[in-house]
Amino acid sequence: KSDKIINNKKEVSNNKIDNKLNDQSKTSTSIIRLKKAVGSGVGVILAGGTDCEAKDVTVHRVLADSVAAKAGLKRGAKIKAINGCTMIGLTHAQSVTILKEQRSEVIIEIEDETATNDSKTGCGSEKAESKDRHKRDEVPVKEDSSSDIVTVMLEKAGGGTGLGFGLDGGRDSPHGDRPLTIKKLFAGGAAAQSGRILVGAELLSAGGQSMETFTRTQAWAALKSLPAGPVALVLRNPKGTKV
C-alpha cells in the first residue's frame, strides 16, 4: 500500500513538471531587426522596468512612419531582450540605455501575442500620461537610494521645441572639465512645468544616453536630436535638497 502511495506521489509530481514545461513551451518569441541610420532612433518608446509599477518592459509607443512602425512592432508588445541583453531585472532607464546604443541595427526579441493591460501604470504608461501630461513622477534610482540621484520624465514637444532648460559646465568648459549642470529653467518649458528640475542639478543622462563625458555643445546637440515624446532625465540633485 505504501508503495502505491509513493508511486502516486511520483506520478503527481511528474505531471506537475510536465504541465510546467508545457506552459513554458507555449511562450514563443519573435525577433525583429531594425536598421538604424547614424544619429537617429528606431521610433520606439519603452515602458516598465523594476523601478516602475509595471515590471515588464513593454512597447509604450511606436512613432508613426518610423523604422519600428514599418517593421510591424506594436504597442503593448512585451520585450524579452534588446541586442541580446535580457530585460529581466533592469530599471526603465537601463532598458532605454540599451535601446539607444549607437549601432547600425537594433535587435528586439518580443513575446508573441502579448496583450496590453491598460489597468496597470508604470514608467511611460498611457494611463499616467493621459491623466496629466504635464506632471511626471520622479523615480529614485534604487541601486543608490542614499544618493540624490533621481529620474524625471519630461514630455518633449515636436517642432524643434526643447526641454526648457539651459546647461553649464561640461568637458572642456572655460573652467576646465566640470559636470554638466542645469543653469536655467525657461518659463513655460517642460522642465519648469514639471516642478521637479532644480537649477544646479547635475545632468547624468537623457533619453538613455550618458552625458557625463560630453561638452556643453555635444550635450545640447544630443538633447536637440531626441525624438518628440517622453524623455527620461537622470539627475543628481544638490545635496540636501528635495523636490
Automatic annotation (TrEMBL):
<feature type="region of interest" description="Disordered">
    <location>
        <begin position="115"/>
        <end position="145"/>
    </location>
</feature>
<feature type="compositionally biased region" description="Basic and acidic residues">
    <location>
        <begin position="126"/>
        <end position="145"/>
    </location>
</feature>
<feature type="domain" description="PDZ">
    <location>
        <begin position="151"/>
        <end position="238"/>
    </location>
</feature>
<protein>
    <recommendedName>
        <fullName>PDZ domain-containing protein</fullName>
    </recommendedName>
</protein>
<dbReference type="InterPro" id="IPR001478">
    <property type="entry name" value="PDZ"/>
</dbReference>
<feature type="domain" description="PDZ">
    <location>
        <begin position="31"/>
        <end position="114"/>
    </location>
</feature>
<dbReference type="Pfam" id="PF00595">
    <property type="entry name" value="PDZ"/>
</dbReference>
<dbReference type="InterPro" id="IPR036034">
    <property type="entry name" value="PDZ_sf"/>
</dbReference>
